Amino acid sequence: MPYPADQTNKTEGICKESNGNHLEIIFSSAALRTSPVHWHIFPARAGRDPFLRKTGGFIVYPATDQAHPGFEFFFGLVVAHATALKVKCIAIYLNRFPVQNQTSPLVLTFGVADPVGAIGIQADLASLAAMGCHGLSVITALSIGDTTGTEDTQAVEPDWVADQARVLLEDMPVAAFKVGHIGSIETVSVIAEIVSDYPELPLVVDPFSTTLPDQGPDEEMLLAMRELLIPQTTLLLVSVDELSRLAETWRDPSEDNMIETDALQMIEFGCEYLFVTGVPGDAHDVTNLLFSEDGLVRSASWPRQTGPFAGAGNTLSATITAMLANGLDVPEAVAEAEEFTNATLSHAQRLGMGKLIPDRFFWAREGDADSAVS
């Protein structure tokens, strides 16, 4: 059947035009375990025009050919027989079927499972979704608690942490990493080894949480983070007190204002950016500082909101990660995340008898309210 050369493909993200040549479509092994089977189609040359009056190709994982020999695929009126998953069909038939192409950046987050959803994995997933990302999660610890606080945590075995991450990373293309609560010194080593295999991806590390019981990292664990994880970090998020705790792994305690000195030392250890929250100043404001190898690159103050809150810092770091996954540079990602976090606190909800929980989907509920009024 002839295919009009001037007909435009209506399937978003697949192609703009075709001259009727055959398209070669190759499916990933992961796609065959889901429905529809074309979930993992990717253009072979992303960012270019692979289908602009040309025959195009798609990515396939090498293991796919071995796992599915003799695959047969029905596409409209075309029945394709080929070795493994290579399928050839006339371009016109591609237009007749919607293709579910992945468009949301994938972010892999390591952290504690929080039953409330105020901090940890559940909070990360909400913040990532609000920013247009799809969150993948690796649980480093389990917790027991409610809105008044966390009673106890149980670290997950490091081998389980490694296996959770490796299985996901072998299946899906991740755009960024976030590391929250780590749990144990062995898990520091495991996570550091995993992210070292992806040096081109942004890594945000936010390892402290005031919501968890007072059993923070000891000096050995802080030293492990400083030596193994922080040198690979795109952005490390800490409060002033947390920065001081890290600094005591290389200097004696001091009553002086050491924020800038300690920040630049952390940059010296290999951290690309250091984001310090809760800097002392006006009691009515919250001041945050962003440092790089050039020194202070950003300072921002926000009116202090009436709390108490659980999950503000978690929202901030997860949103920064999402912005980096979406292609923003670090200073711009930090600015966007600060605005969003401030808005989630303005719309915070009292879900129980304890602390207020940031509403990461306030914007969706505002839209529903406007529709109801109209």
Q: Which terms summarize this structure?
A:
374 residues; alpha/beta; UDP-N-acetylmuramoyl-L-alanine:D-glutamate ligase; 2 domains; 11 helices; disordered N terminus
Structure write-up:
By secondary structure, the chain is of the alpha/beta class. The protein contains eleven helices and 13 strands. Helix 4 packs parallel to helix 5 (185-196). The longest helix has 17 residues, at 330-346.
Sequence-ordered SSE layout with sheet pairings:
Blueprint lengths: L21 E5 L35 H6 L4 E4 L2 E4 L4 E5 H5 L10 E8 L6 H11 L3 E13 L2 E7 L2 H14 L4 E4 L5 H12 L6 E3 L13 H11 L5 E5 H8 L11 H10 L4 E7 L5 E8 L2 E9 L8 H14 L4 H17 L15 H12 L1
Give a summary of the structure in a few sentences.
With 374 residues, the chain is α/β, with parallel strands linked by helices. It contains eleven helices and 13 strands. It has a nine-stranded mixed beta sheet with strand order 7-6-5-8-9-10-11-12-13, sandwiched between helices.
Globally, the shape reads globular
How far from one another are the termini?
A: 50 Å
- Percent in strands: 15-25%
In spatial order, strands of the major sheet run 7-6-5-8-9-10-11-12-13
What's the alpha carbon Rg, rounded to whole Å? 24 Å
CATH class categorisation of the largest domain: Alpha Beta
Full CATH superfamily name of the largest domain: Ribokinase
Number of helices: 11
Order of helical and strand elements = EHEEEHEHEEHEHEHEHHEEEHHH
Uncertain stretches of 5 or more adjacent residues = 1-99
Whole-number total of structural domains:
2
CATH topology of the largest domain: UDP-N-acetylmuramoyl-L-alanine:D-glutamate ligase
